[in-house]
Write a structure and sequence with these properties.
Helix 2 (24-39) runs antiparallel to helix 3 and helix 2 (24-39) crosses helix 4 (63-74). Helices cover 45% and strands 23% of the residues. The chain starts with 5 loop residues before the first helix and ends with a helix. The protein has helices at residues 6-20, 24-39, 47-58, 63-74, 106-119, 148-157, 180-189, 211-225, 241-247, and strands spanning 83-91, 95-103, 123-124, 134-142, 162-165, 171-175, 194-203, 207-208, 230-235, 237-238.
């Protein structure tokens, strides 16, 4: 089935986010380190680590840097110990916001997150206040020119939930997070190129925003993303494309 412009919205948002993140590598290193610490350094048996490494390589991180991050997580190298934590709250206009962090100082990051919410007219909520609005899923975007029938055949056999052809011609496959590594392996074995992939969270229902309201919400999200210990920020905002043009 044909996808709606939501996918373009997500891509615009992520492109704007990545373009302004001078500390992107640091965030990926932390994600790899935490995954290795919690599940071990074997990519084949640690799906979270495999996902983190794929994301890091996708932004051109060197394999040497990746391997050092894994060794730091498994204790083979000395380093700071990071802990994963998630904060929930609301941006202006009742927009739900989920903030995933990795920090060596829980008191510092909660103070910084609370300050950002307060400064930009949001409010930090309690655990569970907005998390239920989001679904975790693996998302795989096939390279341009992919054969939709072949994608469907491989994807459904490997545990995919849905295959969507979007307005720009790209084919997107979604799956449960637990099936992500197997699905990526199936596409690799079939010789099919993947353009982008990640395990992420998406809101089940989005709230469309006007240009003015979008700018208010973006100020908070940008402030959160600029925090050193913040890894990802998710919201249920449906931003107008003009909001990204104004930001660039």
């Amino acid at each position: 089935m044909a996808g709606h412009s939501k996918w373009a919205n997500i891509k615009h948002r992520k492109a704007a986010q990545d373009a302004k993140r001078g500390k992107l590598f640091t965030k990926h290193i932390r994600e790899i380190t935490v995954a290795a610490r919690e599940g071990g350094g074997d990519l084949d048996s640690n799906a979270a680590l495999r996902i983190a490494v794929d994301k890091a390589l996708g932004v051109n991180m060197t394999r040497d840097t990746v391997e050092r991050a894994i060794k730091r997580g498994t204790g083979d190298l000395e380093g700071v110990n990071y802990e994963d934590m998630t904060y929930e709250g609301y941006a202006p206009c009742g927009i739900a916001v989920l903030v995933e962090c990795s920090s060596d100082n829980k008191n510092r990051i909660v103070a910084e997150v609370r300050h950002a919410f307060s400064k930009y007219n949001g409010s930090l909520g309690t655990s569970g206040s907005v998390a239920y609005m989001f679904t975790s899923l693996g998302v795989i975007e096939m390279a341009e020119g992919a054969d939709e029938e072949q994608v469907m055949e491989v994807a459904l056999e490997a545990g995919a939930d849905d295959i969507v052809t979007h307005e720009d011609g790209t084919v997107e496959v979604t799956c449960p997070p637990a099936e992500y590594v197997a699905l990526m392996g199936a596409f690799e074995q079939a010789g099919m190129a993947v353009a982008n992939s990640e395990v992420t969270k998406r809101a089940e229902n989005e709230i469309a925003l006007s240009q003015d309201d979008a700018e208010k919400v973006m100020k908070l999200i940008d402030a959160l993303e600029d925090l050193d210990d913040v890894v990802e920020v998710f919201s249920n905002a449906d931003f107008p494309e003009s909001a990204f043009e104004a930001q660039s």
